[in-house]
Amino acid sequence: MESIAFNINALSPHLFWDVDIQRLSLKANKEFIVKRILEYGLLSDWLRLSKSLEIEEIADAVSNIRDLDHKSLSFIAAISKRPKEKFLCYTIQQSNPLHWNF
Question: Which residue of 34, 51, 68, 78 could cross-link 89, Cys pair, CB 3.0 to 4.6 Å?
Fold first, then answer.
């Protein structure tokens, strides 16, 4: 699959409301950008990311993230065909789970 150039300005504006989007780059902030897209992004955001990065690159970035919601973890584990145990957010879970865990 041929990757295309990543344009962070084309993503949904609600993803990066708290940071200066001009200071972000996919190369330097890959984990942060991938985490935001997985947790809060729209389908169009995911499609843009998956056209720029291979699934294996996305899974490698997610494997180093310490906190990721269960749905996003299940999604990336399923499409990358990696067991959940290979992801840091699965092995290091919060010791006190949230009261409302949907």
Answer: 68
